[in-house]
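Here is a typical protein record:
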Amino acid sequence: MLRREFIASLAALVATPALGSEQQPQMQLGAPETFDVGTVKSIARSLAQSAYRAPQSVPEAWTNISYDQYTAATPKPEFFHGL
C-alpha cells in the first residue's frame, strides 16, 4: 500500500462519522398497523367485489420530496448482499 492510499483511507475513515451525524429530513409516517395474511386476503376480497377505479394521481408526499429523501427511501442493494 502506498503512503497516499493510506492517508486517503485514513482521511475517509475519519470523515465517515461526521457524515453519519448529519441530520436527515424524515418523512412523517402514520400510526403502525398490523399486516398479515388475513389483511392481504381481506384487501383482495374487497377489491375483487368492487368496481374498477382508475389509479389516483401521485400522492403529495411523493411529489414534494427531494432527491436525497427519495434515495433514502429506496432499498440499497448493499444491505442485502449475501442474503
